[in-house]
């Protein structure tokens, strides 16, 4: 996903295939690969004295999808050795 995000840019959710069914009211605009109307002349900050965007007050809903097997949501990497291999390469090259 990171490779595609870098290739498509920050506005990847504005691609027609990636767009949600109901558009979100947020302040994302400008940037690489802009496909939408780009917010027109409306400000991209809240609160403002112009027309929106305004928060809806609705929070994201927790997914009701149940997995049959356990999966790891986060991998503990506190004991990883991130320096020995680069140090050996630096010394030997």
From TrEMBL:
Entry's Gene Ontology BP terms: hydrogen peroxide catabolic process; response to hydrogen peroxide
Region (Disordered): 1-61
GO MF terms, alphabetically ordered: catalase activity; heme binding; metal ion binding
Domain of life: Eukaryota
UniProt keyword Iron, yes or no: yes
Gene3D superfamilies the UniProt entry points to: Catalase core domain (2.40.180.10)
Residue span(s) of domain Catalase core: 2-51
Annotated keywords: Heme, Iron, Metal-binding, Oxidoreductase, Peroxidase
Entry-linked InterPro entries: Catalase, Catalase_core, Catalase_sf
TM region positions: none
Any one Gene Ontology cellular component term annotated for this protein: mitochondrion
Name of the protein this chain belongs to: Catalase core domain-containing protein
Naturally occurring in which organism (per UniProt): Meloidogyne incognita (Southern root-knot nematode worm)
Lineage: Eukaryota, Metazoa, Ecdysozoa, Nematoda, Chromadorea
